[in-house]
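To: structure desk
From: M.T.
Subject: fold request, one chain
Message: Could you run this one when you get a chance? Sequence is below, nothing fancy, just the single chain.
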Amino acid sequence: MNNVLAVDIGGTHFRVGLFDEGGRRLLISEGDTSRVEGREWMLEEVRRRARDLVEKTDLPVKACGASFGGPVDFARQRVVSVHTPGWQDFALGEWMARTLGLPSRVDNDANCGALGEYRYGAGRGSDSMVYITISTGIGAGIIIGGRALRGRDNLAGELGHIPVSESGTICSCGAKGCLETFCSGSAIAERGREWAQRRPESIDRVLEISGGTPDQITARSVVLAALEGDSVARSIVEESARWLGRALLIVIRILNPDRIVLGGGVAQAGSVLLDPVRETMREFGSPSVGYSTEIVLAELENYSPLYGAAAMALDLAGQQETGSSV
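Reply: Done. Structure tokens follow.
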């Protein structure tokens, strides 16, 4: 019996977990990500928490997998961040192997989330699956025949950066009109703040949940108000859902996967998001081009990338034992 380590470095939260060889989570240590403290602070948190977990098991820890919330060059095992200061071209895989003394592998959070749901969550039993994470930004991981599709430049699954409009705000990637600027958690929060600045009386419940300060409005506060029936909050979520529904049709038209799994914090809004998504897909769908792709919510919720990182570590441990290549 062996164990592995899994790390999930996100823009809002980070997690370090200990998993057994069956992919079951044994222990977890997690916290809030500090953008102010930067990369070195984050690396020290990972190092300290990983070593603490290793000390709590009597079984050998054979490998480590890591999910990173940003672009990753999988072949070179380097972070290729376009929006997170301090991580540009950082050899995270090498750092983990050297610091933890374990064979290590890193991938982006969308690919890890896809692998986690495919192995242990809502993607079980499917041959082809697309995992879409809707949180601060929007990303997607594509699994075909049990393997992640990354593309020539590691750009496969960059759903959030598909240009869908000639208008809109500048995206975190520097382009204009990206899907992410219309239906991500950041976009939902921004719409809420815009309403609070223009007509605060119309969005009083969102403001109340946010402590009365427009700058503190988040996607979560908008979604919570929408779930309570606040009309403006519901309209914000529904507008985002319409953009998402169109994007899902694009995914189905291009890949026609067995299943699309929706993860990330915004997806946990449930029916208030999914109902208008499905209505939009019916509205824009074709009567002559039908599809049987299932659209489901992630079973592992916010832990999908962590489970995917554990799956990578288990694969790596198995390869180390058999002497096979990556």
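Reply (cont.): The chain has a mean pLDDT of 92. Let me know if you need anything else for the meeting.
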